[in-house]
Amino acid sequence: MKLANHLRKYRFEHNEISQQDLANAVGVTRLTIHSIETGKFNPSALLALKIAGFFKVKFEDIFYLVEERSKK
Amino acid sequence: MKKLETLMRGVSIVLGLASIAFFVFDYFVFASLRPKMIHFEAISAAEETLMNWVGVGLLLFLAFCLLSLFQIAKYLKYAKKVTLFSLILIVAGVLSLLFIFGDVALLSDIGKQYRHGLAQPEWLMLYPVVGFQFITAIVFTYLHLSGFFKGKQLKYVAQDSNIFLMVQYVGVICGLLGLSSSSLGFLFPRAWTLQIHTTIGPIVLLIPYVLVALYWTFINFQEKTSQWFDEKQLQDIGRSAFLTLVISAIFMIVLFISNYNNLSGVVSILWLPLYLFSVLFLFSLGNLYFSGKD
Predict the structure, then answer these.
(1) DSSP secondary structure letters along chain A
(2) Is 0.95 exceeded by the ipTM?
């Protein structure tokens, strides 16, 4: 299982807020937001809840689990 | 704050222009002294005085490099990201700063060899090194004049990543230079000295890293940052530290085994700089790799 997200979609739906502005709001670096968006970094529960709180939605509206495809 | 920035820019421009003028002066001094010194002809007291002015020029250039690197760091804090151009500026600034100590060492060696009637192959190294510094002085002065370092791309950055990355880039440069210079001890074991090569050399090579790391620390203190690293940076640092531990341990074991029959030789005064610079290089490179990978 892998953690995926709709972060990019939510950013664009919220006046196309930049990665830097979101990073400033939740107190992390822009690179961290970028890594979460591209699925290369799994945020802590605290950060994920902060992000969901920023967009005023539930955690599971942004983050969800997907099956990882096995490598052949 | 604005006044201080304007003052710094003004001082940088004056120092930059003075450095350029001194490099042109240096070229003519070297061009007139080199043929005489190579052929061991007498040098007048007035010509020796000219060399003192070369030293003054290098001191001004040292101040210019330090001020320029400080302004690059300030500029990067509010830059959207560390671009290739800013990376080139960091590398050029750090190398030019370190080359000043190289200039002093080369000129001192040339003087000593001339007095002892020996050949001076150092002249061949001096010209490209000074040429590189001359180009850096021109580019940096142009950037100060054009107000390149004045523009802020972002208004506010809650958690810094650019200066942290700059520290890592400088760490890679200093680590690599330290490893290269320390390794020279194996090629010239008889010429290697504990005081100059093992002690003073590494201290000089660490200056840019210490300065930029201190600046990063100062900013975190000044802005009363609640957390110095965010969670991804902490993860990157952890992975990088583990990688550094494994590779540096292997490196030191290989160094020990390869010198097993001569442990009292040059390796006895080289192991510490080799260890320090390998750790610095690996840790900084690891941080850059992991921060760019994810």
Answers:
(1) -EEEE-HHHHHHHTTT--HHHHHHHHTS-HHHHHHHHTTSSPPPHHHHHHHHHHHTS-HHHHEEEEPPPPP-
(2) no
